[in-house]
Amino acid sequence: MVCEKDPLVQKVCELYEQISSLESLKPCKDVNMLFTQLVVTCMPPSPIDVTKLCKSIQDIRCKLIRLCGEAEGHLESHFSTILGSYDNPLHHLNIFPYYSNYLKLSQLEFNILTKHCSNLPTKVAFVGSGPLPLTSIVLASFHLTTTSFHNYDIDPSANSMALQLVSSDPDLSQRMFFHTSDIMDITNDLKDYDVVFLAALVGMDKETKVRVIDHVAEYMTPGALLMLRSAHGARAFLYPVVDPCDLRGFEVLSIFHPTDEVINSVVIARKIPITKQCSVEYPLAPTKLPNKCFDIEMFNPLNHVNLLEELDIEEQLS
């Protein structure tokens, strides 16, 4: 049982106390400094397993993920507003302090995507796109240059700000669409997408995350791909973790854990057909998954270390 005595956990708890006592999480010197310290603390590869944390630390982790989500929302809104003041917002994306991380993460996601599909998708959904939909923008601009992107967010002001960023661009304004909806209310439209991206902070606790995954599994077209963001090691203090067993109705293809400054892990899974054994009423009943391996990769592009470990999917789900 990992508890307060672990130096990393101690440091995270100290930072949590300081962050939780802030009056506001909007960008300012103190907020920026504390969250930078938190990220730097959690970034190095760590053997810590957050599922083995004691109850008090589990509670702090859950609260910290919510605080990180709130701060990230404020940061994106702040920079989306600044960018929206330019005549050509997309020419100034590099003013966002983590833009280079999004370039790396999008490149990583594109590489993983092309490894598992023979044709580039024509229509994708990004769920939880927010006021600064950098993943969609970067993928649409540099990688999926003929694909249409349907961005879903529950917040109308976030969509309004996001639309402002692409409306002056002759290409992206024709290929990027914004829908103000709760993903749990989207049903048959999900059948239209070759790939569904799920943002890291859609479902900030395990129960909500699994509910969202179950919902998209019910309505996605068999064979379509789901790309999710997760976290590994101490980075799980910053973002929720998606386990292979959470992906009912999907065949997990690959799990990728970056070890550089890209914080999120990437999980890709394929919607599998409902077997005859599953009843119509319960399409997500336990399904016998293919007895095949999926990859877990640890990759640091800075030193080109690439370790590949194959794990049996049924072992992961047991």
From TrEMBL:
Coiled coil: none annotated. Keywords: S-adenosyl-L-methionine, Transferase. It comes from the Eukaryota. It catalyses: 3 S-adenosyl-L-methionine = nicotianamine + 3 S-methyl-5'-thioadenosine + 3 H(+). Its EC number is 2.5.1.43. One of its GO terms (biological process) is nicotianamine biosynthetic process. InterPro entries: Nicotian_synth, SAM-dependent_MTases_sf. GO terms for molecular function: nicotianamine synthase activity. Synthesizes nicotianamine, a polyamine which serves as a sensor for the physiological iron status within the plant, and/or might be involved in the transport of iron. This is Nicotianamine synthase.
